Amino acid sequence: MAKTFKKPEALSxxxxxxxxxCTHGIAHRLVAEVIDELGIRGRTVGIAPVGCAVLAYxxxxxxxxxxxxxxxxxxxxxxxxVRPDLVVFTYQGDGDLASIGMGEIIHAANRGEKxxxxxxxxxxxxxxxxxxxxxxxxDQRTTTSPAGRKVEEVGMPIKVxxxxxxxxxxxxxxxxxVIKPKYIVRAKKAIKKAFEYQLEGRCFSLVELISTCPxxxxxxxxxxxxxxxxxxxxxxxxxxxxxxxx
Length: 246
What we know:
By secondary structure, the chain is an alpha/beta fold. The chain has a single domain, classed as Thiamin diphosphate (ThDP)-binding fold, Pyr/PP domains (Rossmann fold, 3-Layer(aba) Sandwich). It has nine helices and nine strands. It has helices at residues 24-38, 72-82, 94-100, 102-111, 151-154, 160-165, 181-199, 214-217, 221-235, and strands at 44-48, 63-66, 87-93, 116-121, 124-125, 131-132, 171-177, 204-210, 239-242. The strands form two sheets. A seven-stranded mixed β-sheet has the order 2-1-3-4-8-7-9, with helices on both faces. Strands 5-6 form a two-stranded antiparallel sheet. Helix 7 (181-199) links the parallel strand 7 (171-177) and strand 8. The termini are far apart. One of its GO terms (molecular function) is oxidoreductase activity, acting on the aldehyde or oxo group of donors, iron-sulfur protein as acceptor.
């Protein structure tokens, strides 16, 4: 029987540490498929964050670096400037990118650094115990906001794609989701476009991915998918927010 489906060469043969129902694995798969399709595995460098994807280097078959919390854009800047022939991407969660790393990502985008960022947004600090993140929704309960996020005290959740797209520097910024097949297909197209812009030397690119966190949300896998679709997507609308000028 002919095979119609196989594991991407860019993915290693490993059992992941991610919780059941976590969509980091889907995001990893999409990145690996795109890298294989573009034929760039031999010159790609990924940068792992502090967060649930801290061990991401175990799951890919190309070079990876580990960055300090929030500092992946700074490391990506250095690698890409020294070796512009490489394809460089950061893989960051909302606690890493939108909190301690907010200054790093904003200034990297504003400088127009020619690397790609995969930004996984699941509205909580996943690895460290489910604390409230900059993207936690209003009234959403977390371990540090057991009564729900109070916007009058801590402000509204930060919309990263909209924030970065407001910069004047040319960039490709999009928000997609990895919670259902119809969204996953669009997410892969967006990731591929982001890497293609880098290969063309065009611009900085960021792909935000709406993701789930069943463990820290206290929901089943299917309940998490429904919660994300019903609550996250209305607040974080999907689509392209910025494209470089032709």
